[in-house]
Every structure is written in structure tokens, then in C-alpha cells.
Amino acid sequence: MKQLRMIHSTLKRRAFLRGVAFGVPVAVGLPVLEHFLGESGEAFADGTALPKRFGVFFWGNGRGMDATRWNPTAVGTTWDLSPQLVPLMAYKQYLTVVSGTKLKIANSPQGHHRGSVGILSGADFITQPAGNAPFRSTFGGPSIDQGIAAMAGMMTPFKSLELGISTTLDKVEGTTLQFISHNGPDSGNQQEYDPVKLFSRIFAAGAGPAPTQDPDLIKKAGEMKASVLDSVLADLTGLEARVGARDKARLEQHAQNIREIEKRLTTAGPTLSASCQSPTKPGPLATNPKGEPFEERTLALSQVLALALACDLTRVFSIQFSGSAANPVFHPLGITGGNHNITHTGTAGQAQIDMSTTWTMKQLGVFLGALMAATEGTSNVLNQSAILVTSDTSDGFTHSVDDYPILLAGSAGGFFKSPGVHVAATGDNSSKVLLSLVRSQGIQATSYGGGAGMVTDSMTSIEA
Length: 464
What we know:
- This protein has 464 residues and is α/β, with parallel strands linked by helices.
- The chain has 2 domains: 1-30 and 205-284, no CATH class; 49-194 and 285-462, 3-Layer(aba) Sandwich (Alkaline Phosphatase, subunit A).
- Helices cover 30% and strands 13% of the residues.
- The strands form 5 sheets. A 7-stranded mixed β-sheet has the order 7-10-3-13-14-4-15, sandwiched between helices. A two-stranded antiparallel sheet has the order 1-2.
- It is globular and about 65 Å long.
């Protein structure tokens, strides 16, 4: 017991493996070890609850004209996955569907603008001079991720992380369509698309080589493909000697996870080396001659983000898979037209929209799988998370905001019902779900949204 107390006094809850690679300090975060936990494995030894996470997964242009392709048939606990949600079968116990809600913000219907701002902030957008654009707007206030990050994000090294998959965006109609994460009006948070840059930013203590470092040494370091993990192996070896067998196995798996990410990134682009590569000059993923590397980028970013969440380096994130009113070409499906344009072909394009939405959920599953694999006590990072999965409209053809597509992943550590349910909340204000999400993070909010979108009641039917 004396030895255990001594170890707890020297090994902090959020610890880092530290080292120096070619003169640059490197820090690699640790996952939650049993060593940190109480006897139940459901909280830290001092009684503090395991960390909760919040995230947004967003795709553009809606789920299509046929709501039955998205909405499950049955409600309650006995629901089955709808056709578009079938790719998420492995994660069904962590999923909750809320159908039938409506955005009730009062601004005039302006296509994708109203939906993007309404579902991500519960409030109206701000109309701006259009200039040469058809229309222009910005968020009237912070998006939900930044509202939560203002509190939960203060407890981690990174307040929040914003990631993107498709770089094909509408950049002329204001920040509303360009970014999903906003601090406030005209203050969008730029998505990170490069997994190499993200990895360097998160796991390297420095921003790059010291200005006085020998250029020849930097070149040599690049040629040797110096590994972030190699620089902390001595610290890792020392730590393994201080913990139990199960934690030692977790540390070994943690090291293997980092190594696998490094292999993927060094294969996809230039040498990954926090010691000699500035994060401002990242290497791109391998070029796909058919178009954007959707699947490759999703996998690589998912692995890095899952590791950051498991190490408690951040608790808030957003993933913009595709942008509002954007025209990515989903070439892996054999589609040759832009997604937004296809929605405006009416019924003629619905088969492709249905296929695209289903495939997008498959990509979401890649990320959820990475979170589920990250164990944390008797739970896992997915279960400790609350992830809002949604779009900028219900149907891209009519720009409808009725029967809004809302999927939640994770129970936020038991705040939401688990296994998840399907709730048909016909006519309810979508902001009720947002208030539930805010409260799921331990924030004692009494209301959410603004104007006609404001609510004081949460969606209690999905809460435990």
C-alpha cells in the first residue's frame, strides 16, 4: 500500500511520456490506465469521474427526399437501423436517433444557411452584404462545440480540435457554409485536413526545429525517419516497470497504436518527424488520381483524433466530412457529379444521394470504431462521448428543415440511454437535443439557442 501511494504521488492522472528527438522536446500523452482508477474502474481513484467528450460529425446537403431511408421504423428500444444507418450496425448500442424535430429559428429560408446555423447553434444567422455571391451570412454566436469548449476545453492542453475530410467547399457565401465550428460572427475555426500536421501539432512539444539547429542534422533526421515514439522509449520502459500487468499491456498497445499511425502517415506522405519537420509544412496524403482521398483521410485523421481523446489532450472536436451546399464528387461510389448539384435534380438524383449518405455513415463508422477500441477503465472513449451527427438540411432539393436528421453516438458516460433509442419527436424544437448535449457534459445550462430557436427544456426522452 505504501508503494502504491508513492507511485500515485509521482504519476499524475494526465501524464506524458517525454523525450528529446534531435534537439526538439517531444511529449506523447498516456491513455487512462487502471493505475489511475478506483476499485470499480468507473472513476478515478479520488472519485473524479472519467472525462466526457463532445463532438460534431457533419455532412452537407442532407439525407435525401425520402425520410424513411434515414428514420428507423420502430421507436423506443426495439428499433432497427434504417437503410442509410446500416453501416453503423457494429455500434448500434451506442446510437440514438431523434426524428421528427424541426428547426424553429425565424430567419427567412435561405437554403443551407438556415440549417447549418440552426442545428449547430440553435439560433439565427446574421445576413451580410452579398457582394458577388447569391447570398452571404455568418453565425450569430458560437457553435455548440465552442460553447462547450469554453468550459470543458479549459481542462485539456487543446481547447478543441477541428478536422475536415472534403476540401471542396462553398467559400463565397460567408463563414456559415465554410466552417461548422464558430467562436462567433465571422470567426470560424479552420478545419485541419492533414493527419501529419495534426499528429505533429498534438504530440510534439515544440512547433518544429530550433532556428539555430544545424540544417544538415535536420536533413539527416528526415532521412532516418526519426520516430516520435523512439524518443520516449526510455521513459516508457521506466513507466512500465511501475505499473501492473494490465496497465503494462495497455502501454504496449498504446505504443503500437502510435507506431501504426506513424507507419500510415509516413507511407501517405513525406517523413513524419517532429524533430525536423515543421507542422506548418505538412506532407499531403498520397494522391488519388480519381479525386479527393476521402477514405484515406478519414482513417488517418480518425486514428490520430482517437489517440488525442484517449490521452485527454482534448475533449471537444468537430469533423466536417463535407460542407454545406458543397459539391464534392464521391468517386469511390462511381459518382461523377457534384453532391450539391445532384440534390437539385430532384427525384432523378435520389438514388445517388441515398448511396452517398449511406457511404458517409460508413466513414463515420471508421471513426466510431477507433473510439470504441480505446478502452477506458470498464468503458471506452466512445461510450464516454456524445457526438452529434447531422447535416445542413433534411432534404437538399427543397432545403427543408422539418424532420431534421439527428443521430447521437455515445452515451456521455451514461447521461443518455444505453443502449440507445429511437425517439419520434414530431414537431419538437431541434434545440432541445442541443440542450441535452450541453447538459451531458456536466454543464448546468438552463436554456439553449436564441430567438425562436431558444429552448428551456431538453429532450428528456433520450436521457437516462
